[in-house]
């Protein structure tokens, strides 16, 4: 339908987006006990990164599992999670009115989601990935970004892991084999035109 | 993440879903004047079909354009549309608490959406397509269902068109080349186990 | 692997490719009798178009069904077809040493094929579609090109149909709803820099 | 086209396929020196596994990079490689007349290839992955198989790596996070009906 057409050439920001992966989470799964301490450490750098993106006008895109709840929308998932025992792990990085939202059903942020379309539509060619889990969804998403010729940046202190040794290997894989930039959250360049 | 795993073998209903395409609509696009009379005619059969699906426990899945509003969730889109001048075209077929929702960004209900995953996860192998536009999104979605080896049924009186001659050709294409069942809305079999 | 990387920014020709759809064909299927006269009429304009593309350095990409023969490569399929009773429908438009080849398994030239990747890798943003069947694979491929924001041109006299009325409707759908340029084969502009 | 339809319910073997990844290779890329000793060690178990699959009637599917050679078919790629200085790394595991072939353009065996379609068409729900590189294409392909709900088996002695530590981590990731069976090549069960 013609009304559905959009300008694919439109640019927003300067080609970078910050992606927040699976942080809207009730931490009820079986690996939660191992994951939570790492999330706690990653939260402050992640929060600073999100704040900086908002200040600089870099799009912040939350890509989150819907936990099979195809009836719920993202506000309902957020509300549920904010009433869970682990609300303090979600509150600091909650979406604001400008945040974009993409729901995913499987591990990668790209698999059967509209994320690739959203990025290309807005002229975004570089993604900064934060959130969880380093050696799972973050690794898989970095691969799926790289395979699509997107540039990838992963701040090592703003991603959370279950197994430290696998997370270390995952970061090395991203750096070596997916040409990802791995650096501290505070060193991430968001605006290329800075 | 293990918490994200779901039983891919779980069945719901008996393998058929009713898909409602692009009916959450403000009718502000340039073809609206030609489309609206056809929507008005299609609404009563579509309503009866949705009611029957709800009664019989057949999943009803709304797949709808998000009109580029990546910040909004489906309730917000519905609220906006229900306050538009054409709310009476949306009210009769509005989602209920059991409805499933999938947001699409482009013409086909399958292109860069999680619909294929949702269907396979629930054991759904047959889709009944109603909504709009017959010779556009409905045709494209029928093709994308057929290419994925799903069975397709299109009730000719529960789909709305802009151009009648193209809609007629589209229905013949679906019937002849995509093995779709084309019948009246009241003849659509929803439960195979009836 | 690094050896697998290719320059995604490399350009070839000037952004247009000529796609030849499903012409490597033994014409043994049940609609062959209706299709063959239309193929016969489309062959001379198609041949002129292919010759012109070769002269002007426009990439010619054959996208062809593999008929489920996952053991065969495209030369074997071509050899088989050239020994069939309908070799005269294939001979005039056979691939040459410069032709590119993509095998497809289903109706659309894009569904589960590397075509999208090949096009983007070479900076091709516009496709000219010729071959068969107008109201089937050509229509579906035009849609799948349009949904990916590629420009589409369809020379009406270089595509072959089974049903004339459906083919006419398909050409109008492509023109009206997919923004495709529909013109005669001899008017197709191949080099934008002409 | 009706002639393109195939029986999607047809079964071959008993639901398992052996996938040979990127072994048709000239070993000219920059990591070849580190890779070759590992390939040499993996070749005998890989050869025994391929022989056993052929004996037992398990489909053997070669999925191989085309190195950007869209003009060449797989026999040409094989011929070229068999005349290279490293032909002895290819000769022992060369395809035979029954082998199936899928060309890939990027890292994963599933990305923009018809492999998923081929597997579902033949009722294959479990893949045994051998070849190279453990911490790259093998890892990515295991993920893309798992995300599609296929069962995955990886014989640790029939996959070759560049970096041993990353390969070890990759095998643990596949085992722990992708539910892959990791075992010796000689212990791999090919026929479930044994």
Automatic annotation (TrEMBL), chains A, B, C, D:
What keywords appear on the UniProt entry? Answer: Hydrolase
User: Where does the Isochorismatase-like domain lie?
Assistant: 16-186
Transmembrane regions: none
Entry keyword annotation includes Mitochondrion:
no
- CDD domains given for it? cysteine_hydrolases (cd00431)
Q: Name one Pfam family in it.
A: Isochorismatase
User: Know the name of this protein?
Assistant: Cysteine hydrolase
